[in-house]
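User:
Hi there, any thoughts?
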Amino acid sequence: MPRKLIILQNRASHEKISYDEKIVAEVENAGVKGNTIPLLTEIMKIAIVGATGLVGRNIIQLCEDNFSSDVEYALYASKSSEGKVIEINGTEFEIKELKKENIQENDISLFSAGGERSKEYAKDFINKGSFVIDNSSVYRMNEDVPLLSLIHI
């Protein structure tokens, strides 16, 4: 069963930190109060599908702005981008061609590669244990797929 990750904001420093839902529940059940919760010992893995496109580059910038440098990224794009390198928070990540055999386990997969690629590959990422957030409209009217609204303050 995939883990659920939560992004919390530290009330004292306003730093955004990723936590495993189980750790949050354990800390709350133990009655710990305060501004921080112990960090995950496991590194969060984020896939970005469509990493070389305009929106993909903006997603990468948002990840740099909001996540620490210990996040592991899997970057996917077309065959023509395969092997190129993108630096995120000082670490270089090689772009992989988006195809079934290249899909690995991730915690979160952020899709911005068009509806056709979402239809073809989103379920493969889900089957590898990932939560998928898709920027296309392909699942927008599907009642079985929750609509996610993000507010950037």
User: Anything to note?
Assistant: Strands lie at 5-9, 16-20, 45-49, 72-77, 85-88, 91-97, 108-111, 131-134. Confidence is low (pLDDT under 50) at residues 1-20, 30-41. The CA atoms of residues 139 and 145 lie 7 Å apart.
